Amino acid sequence: MTEKRNDRREEELLRSLLEDERVRKMKNYTQHGSVSTYDHCRKVAEVSCGINRKLHLHADPETLVQGAVLHDYFLYDWHEKDGGSHDWHGFIHAERARKNAQQQFHVKEEVQHVIRCHMWPLNITRVPRSREAWIVCLSDKWVSMCETLLKR
Ligand SMILES: [Fe+2]
Ligand SMILES: [Fe+2]
Question: Nearest ligand to the C-alpha of residue 142?
């Protein structure tokens, strides 16, 4: 019963976040191939919710959905040279995304942890320490690999 309620809560949270103008700004930036950062984050959120549901992991709906949707909320095009400031994108964007999410949405510490750790093991010291952080970290790897291989 609780599980069903959490599934519905996840769906509602996801729908309202994806409609939010601040989140839709990510449509302006390219992630992989022809996939926008918005579509990438939406996919990561869908896969994360799917894994949580199928494996009965009982993740906290708000932490999982906000963490997944905002994990790449860095708001710039990392393909642009921009004077070399994006050269270290892989290493720095998680912190930028966390900061933006905190400023724009006042997300709680658990959500910030999900965002901060999603680039593990590249960011070797930022190890996921919650089930929500693990789910998003692994979903992001899977979705990124599919996007890169398919080059949509
Ligand atoms: Fe990322
Ligand atoms: Fe990502």
Answer: 2
Q: What sign does the dihedral 56-59-62-67 (CA atoms) show?
A: negative
Long-range contacts formed by 75-79: CB under 8 A, 24+ apart? 75/25, 75/26, 75/29, 75/100, 76/29, 77/28, 77/29, 77/30, 78/29, 79/30
The number of distinct structural domains making up the chain is 1
Whether 91 shows a pLDDT value over 70: the answer reads yes
Residue 88 lies in a domain: no
Please name the residues in contact with 149: beta carbons below 8 A apart, sequence gap of 6 or more.
none
Please say if the pLDDT value at position 87 is more than 60: yes
In-domain check, residue 34: yes
**Residue 11 Cα to ligand 1 middle (Å):** 22
- Ligand nearest to the Cα of 144, by number: 2
Would you say residue 82 lies in a domain?
no
CA–centroid distance, 1 to ligand 2, in Å, is: 32
- How far is ligand 1, taken at its centre, from the CA of residue 132, in Å? 15
Query: pLDDT-derived band of residue 82, with 50, 70 and 90 as boundaries?
Result: confident
- Global confidence as pTM: 0.95
